[in-house]
Amino acid sequence: MPEALHVASPLLFEFRQSVRWQTFLHQKDPSKGYAKATALAALSKLQLEIASGAVVVVPVDWADLVSIAERLSAQYTWTEGYRGFDVIHVATALHLGASEFLTFDGKQKELAEAEGLVVPL
Q: CB under 8 Å to 26, separation ≥6 — which residues?
């Protein structure tokens, strides 16, 4: 990408949590996840990318974000079964006024598109 990648704190939390979870899984069963050294290297690399400006952390107004997430949940989850963090990520994009939404998750893509976000790929 020629410009910095802009991410919000909910995404950073989910990424970091996932890295830690994979280490937990690996400690319980070495055929799953990855070693703590790999996790620490990934988290360190992320911090370097933030420090260098390649990744920019965009602040969010949590009260507004949760209000949007509640609306999305009430409107769509009853019938479509969206997971909490899928709703939060789409709500974050809407809160920040994004027009595009990047995801590899099919369900999350459906929700984003239902709310008028363009999902390239």
A: 32, 33, 34, 35, 36
